[in-house]
Amino acid sequence: MKYETQGIAKLYFIAAIGLFVGQILFGVILGMQYVIGDFLFPEIPFNVARMVHSNLLIVWLLFGFMGAAHFLVPEESERELFSPLLAKATFWIFLAAGAATILGYLLVPYATLADMTMNHLWPTMGREFLEQPTITKIGIVVVVLAFIFNIGMTILSGRKTVISLVLITGLIGLAVFFLFAFYNPHNLVLDKMFWWYVVHLWVEGVWMLIMASLLAYVLIKVTGVDREIIEKWLYIIIALVLFSGILGTGHHFFWIGTPDYWQWIGSIFSAMEPIPFFVMVLFAFNVVNKRRREHPNKAATLWALGTAVMGFLGAGVWGFMHTLAPINFYTHGTQITAAHGHMAFYGAYVMVVLTIISYSMPIMRGQAAANAKAQVMEMWSFWLMTVSMVFITLFLTAAGILQVYLQRFSDTPLGYMVVQDKIEIFYWMRLIAGLIFLIGLIVYLVSFFVKGEEVKVVQSEAAEANA
Amino acid sequence: MRETFTKGMARNIYYGGSVFFFLVFLGLTVDTVQRLPATDNRENLTPTVTAGKYLWETNNCVGCHSLLGEGAYFAPELGNVYTRFGESTDAIKAYIQSRPAEGIPGRRSMPQFNFTDQELEEIAQFLKYSDGIKTARDWPPNIQG
Question: Which among A130, A433, B23, B36 would be 20 to 30 A from A102, CA to CA?
Fold first, then answer.
């Protein structure tokens, strides 16, 4: 570790992993509820478990992004963090706010939580992914602004690299578009439309800048390929992301009462959204093949390549599958969406955070890379989680295709619950795949504690590896 | 690509293109908002409907159901439930009211929210209003949602 304050990232990463575990446990509960409808009812109804599952995901990914920024920005800027104290304060405030919110979901009925937090003064609750009480949302804004200030000051007063500039652009975008979470008009169509200005412009817009910059950073480190080349790829990728993704928002404006022209705009531009993901695959494999050093951290390289491939499959291919308006007419709001959502989030965002954790954690623990045994175990967890996620996606896709046919496409459409009973077998298989994912996650946790011979790097290489 | 296409060119394309597409998106946003009155059923946006939307939100209905296809996929689509229930707000109210507090053994169960008659009316009116939004191609594809 070149700069002492980079070590603050460790706090963020530990919290991220802890919340990740919580997210998966609730995922398993949800999987159970799909097959045993009244599992944990009425104590933890489906909507509560789902809210915990999706909110934990968002929060732990944010912890991951913030940790990543704290780790890489000092190194890129060639200086210590602007304020280590602020970095620690934002961590604890964010953790406390996040934990309190999740406990609120679990301990009291949602309507009571709304009353307790005086939602009526400024109603923002009860919309998918934006379920947090208004006060929590304000807290998120404060924390993110403090964090951006700290990172921004570090960048401004140090060396400015393309990676840190793209990263901060993404982070600022994240903060700006989150502000739409405070706009909740009575008019349902307007509400839905601007809700996407948070959700879509986050995950298919500014978050992609963060993701691409993290990937580029790790690839520079593990391959030793010239920064100029990697930065050029980075610009191309994020250009393609925004060219397709901004107007690609239109694929959410097909069936919510918005004008018909979105069918064309949304279809055309979102059909191009797989392109940047494909370029990312080319980029990752290209630079790994042209690597100029053998970095001892093989696991981090595996995660980096995995991010590119799974991002392309989950966000790119599975997104494209139902993004054209004539197809989406039938698939909108079915298990097809769930299938896409799972693999896209895992492939693009979960994996990129695990990539940067894999690269940086050993360094923060005083080694160039984890020992060989630990790395083997980490790679096992990679395959267990990734393959089980592929199967979760395939089973949900199968369920979705049948659902679309039986409920919407056939000449004698059946009712929603009748169809759900008929496709139950796929929910059972999805549950099994989910349990294997959990096993993979446990293996991942254990990999941090596996002892073995420390990775020896000769001094010159060690210096280079930290360069 | 190496020599002829420089990093500077890539950067300029990124900045220029992003600003361009963002401005186009902004323009389309304004246009869409101006056209919404034709489809968004705002003429029926009464205080009762608004109160119903607040109940919809504060009971996290979207955590199980979808509305115009958005939300969770654990329970039926409600954007056309008014039509599906024979255009009867009474049928909607009766359904919500009759959910057993302890659920239905082995089945997906909707919570018993203990709504007052007033609240039931509000939520039913909100669902009726939602059903009145003119979606493209009259989505969902059929009455089953």
Answer: A433
